[in-house]
C-alpha cells in the first residue's frame, strides 16, 4: 500500500526559505519511511499558486479545480508536512486561509509535521503557541518536535541544535507516527455534525 505524504508550503518568495525547509523535512521523512519498507508518494502544494483560488473559495463557497485537488489530497493523506513563514508572531494569513477552507473533519487523526521560518530565532515558539493549537483544535496529531528555521540557521550548521539535527529528529517522529497510524477507517462526511446534537438543541448535554 502506498503511503501518501502531502506537503504544504506557504512561502511567498521564489526561492523561498519556507519551501527549502519543507523540502528538507520531506526528504528526511521520506527516507525514514522507506527504510521501514514503505512505498511513499509525495504531493507538494505551494499556497502562493493557490492564493486567488483560496480567496475565491472564502468569498464564493466553492473550490476551483486546482484548489480542490489540494483539499482532496490533504483529506486522503497519510501524513501532512505543513510549513509557514512567521508574520507578526504567528502563521501567515495565506496559511490560515488555506486551513480555513479545509473540511473541518479532513484532518482528524492525521499525523502532521510542523515547520516555520522567520528572520530571527525569537519567533521560534510560534510553532507551539500558534500553529500547534490550530492543528490540535482540528483533531490532527502534530508530532512533538516542530522545526523553526531562522535566517541564521541556513549558515554553516554551528550551534547547540543545528538545523539538520532538528529536521532529522522531527522527521523521525513523523515517520514513526505515520507508520503506526491507520486513517483508512475514517470517513470524511460533509454532513456530519462537529458538536453533539444536544448542543445544537439548546445546550443539552450530549455524549
What is the gist of this entry?
This protein has 207 residues and is α/β, with parallel strands linked by helices.
Polypeptide structure, described:
This protein is α/β, with parallel strands linked by helices and 207 residues long. It has one domain: Rossmann fold. The chain is built from 7 helices and 7 strands. Strands 1, 2, 3, 4, 5, 6 and 7 form a 7-stranded mixed β-sheet that branches. β1, α1 (17-35) and β2 form a beta-alpha-beta unit. α1 crosses α6 (163-179) and α2 (51-60) crosses α4. It is globular. Mean pLDDT is 88; it is low at 189-207.
Describe how the helices and strands are arranged.
Elements: E1 2-9, H1 17-35, E2 39-46, H2 51-60, H3 65-75, E3 79-87, E4 90-91, H4 93-101, E5 111-118, H5 126-137, E6 141-142, E7 147-150, H6 163-179, H7 197-200
Helix pairs in contact: 1-6, 2-4
Amino acid at each position: 500500500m502506498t503511503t501518501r505524504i502531502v506537503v504544504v508550503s506557504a512561502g511567498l518568495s521564489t526561492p523561498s526559505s519556507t519551501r527549502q525547509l519543507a523540502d528538507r523535512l520531506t526528504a528526511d521523512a521520506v527516507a525514514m519511511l522507506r527504510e521501514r519498507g514503505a512505498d511513499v508518494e509525495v504531493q507538494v502544494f505551494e499556497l502562493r499558486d493557490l492564493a486567488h483560488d483560496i480567496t475565491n473559495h472564502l468569498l464564493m463557497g466553492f473550490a476551483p479545480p486546482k484548489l480542490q485537488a489540494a483539499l482532496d489530497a490533504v483529506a486522503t493523506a497519510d501524513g501532512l508536512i505543513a510549513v509557514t513563514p512567521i508574520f507578526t508572531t504567528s502563521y501567515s494569513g495565506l496559511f490560515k486561509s488555506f486551513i480555513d477552507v479545509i473540511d473541518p473533519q479532513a484532518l482528524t487523526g492525521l499525523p502532521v509535521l510542523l515547520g516555520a521560518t522567520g528572520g530571527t530565532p525569537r519567533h521560534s515558539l510560534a510553532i507551539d503557541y500558534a500553529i500547534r493549537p490550530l492543528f490540535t483544535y482540528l483533531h490532527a496529531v502534530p508530532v512533538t518536535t516542530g522545526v523553526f528555521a531562522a535566517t541564521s540557521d541556513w549558515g554553516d550548521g554551528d550551534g547547540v541544535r543545528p538545523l539538520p539535527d532538528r529536521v532529522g529528529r522531527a522527521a523521525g517522529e513523523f515517520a514513526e507516527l505515520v507508520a503506526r497510524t491507520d486513517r483508512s477507517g475514517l470517513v470524511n462526511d460533509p454532513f456530519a455534525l462537529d458538536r453533539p446534537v444536544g448542543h445544537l438543541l439548546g445546550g443539552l448535554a450530549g455524549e
